Amino acid sequence: MKKNILALVVLSFITVVSCKKEEKTEPVVTEETKENTVTGFYTVDNAQSIINWEGSKPTGKHTGTIALKDGNFEVGDGKITGGTFTIDMTSITVTDLTEDTGKTDLETHLKGTGDKEAEDHFFNITKFPSSNFKISSVTEANGGSMVNGTLTIKDITKEVSFPAEIVITDTDVSLISDSFTINRTLWGVNYASKSIFDDLKDKFVNDEIGLVIKVKATK
């Protein structure tokens, strides 16, 4: 009888220990773990996405916006793994001027929709109505994210990188870049560039265009 009781006690002890071991091996799912499993395609919300631009010359600067036509992010394990965006060059808008101070004239010049001889001074939207940005990778840098990709303007493709704040959830992706610059002459936008023409004196337009990209996309 004593032997039977002892056997039952030993068996019970082994069972309890075994259950505790099994409990320890069960994975713990945290909010961070859930976030890292987010995967899928997110479509750009054009109404909540915009590119802000700034151009300058010795006498001042101009600011404006350009809209996105379409685009998407590809997300895997909670990180952006790819994406492509069509930029609507026909939507170029000047925001620092009014109709009385030359808004329409500058927009027409930038778009190249005025005089025939000026159509290719800047972006020539009749021939090149859209541009494109394609994400090749997103890497970590200085505690933030660095977006790397290729920008195509006027059928010329160059590599571009910029820092950005990125937030990814199961329902949407938000990307807001820091302010960064591109050299317009790399894409054949040469009008009044002192690096291209040497007789402009102070009648030049700076090569650098400042950009801030804001993109919102949803599943």
Descriptive notes:
It contains three helices and ten strands; from the N terminus they run H-H-E-E-E-E-H-E-E-E-E-E-E. With 219 residues, it is an alpha+beta fold. A hairpin with a 2-residue loop joins strand 6 and strand 7 (156-168). The radius of gyration is 28 Å and the shape is elongated. It starts with a helix and ends with a strand. 19% of the residues are buried.
Q: Which bin fits the share of residues in helices?
A: 10-25%
Largest sheet composition: 10 strands, antiparallel
In quaternary terms, these chains amount to: single chain
Principal-axes geometry comes out as: elongated
- Topology order in helix (H) and strand (E) letters: HHEEEEHEEEEEE
Rg is: 28 Å
Number of strands: 10
Given as residue ranges, the uncertain stretches (5+ residues, pLDDT < 50) are: 2-35
User: What is the terminal separation in angstroms?
Assistant: 68 Å
* Mean pLDDT over the full residue set: 88
Q: Please count the helical segments.
A: 3
Which structural class fits the helix and strand makeup?
alpha+beta
Report the β-strand fraction as a percent range: over 45%
Summarize the structure.
This protein has 219 residues and is of the alpha+beta class. The chain is 18% helix and 47% strand.
SSE layout and pairings?
Layout: H1 2-25, H2 31-36, E1 40-44, E2 50-57, E3 60-76, E4 79-94, H3 103-111, E5 130-141, E6 144-153, E7 156-168, E8 172-177, E9 180-183, E10 208-218
Antiparallel strand pairs: 1-3, 1-10, 2-3, 2-10, 3-4, 4-5, 5-6, 6-7, 7-8, 8-10, 9-10
